[in-house]
Amino acid sequence: MRRTRMISKTLTLVLASASVLFGTPAYAGVNVDWDNTVDFSQFKTFMIGKTPTESDELMTKRIVDDVVSALESSGLSDGGADADLTVNITSATKDEKHVSAVTTGFGPRWGGWGRFGGVGFGGWRGASTMVNVDNVEYGTITVDLVDTSNGNLVWRGISNDTVSNNPDKTTKKIAKAVKKMFKHFPPE
Known about the structure:
37% strand, disordered N terminus, six-stranded mixed β-sheet, alpha/beta, two-stranded antiparallel ribbon
């Protein structure tokens, strides 16, 4: 009876930990969407509208510079107040807990079954589970391109990834994400 309870408790802990670990959404990646009824060849210029309200002004500047560079590489130019597209950039961070568990102390062992003993499943006696909880910070950058003439959203890019404590690593991740976001811009 006691052994059954211990198996049940350990199994419940392992399954709960696994569901938390594997139930966590995969954030890393870039997604792009656009209005496929819009002729993007009509857009020649852009202006920066909304920018991130990060407390880190240097990181905000890097994000905006990367977006401007990507747009210019796509053939658009800064058009000031008379631009065809308004670029709105937002960013946010979110902390999440990641739980992982490792259970040890069970598996094959000698003894037990049959007339002469032998090898059998060792059961759960002596099993222990180590649970690790890590805080992970995720960052999201959203770039919206709005048709200035009518205020309609025509294109959106979203990038999600982990944020490093090292500003150089985060800067490289942002540059890579924005480049990937605009890889096939303008859409055909």
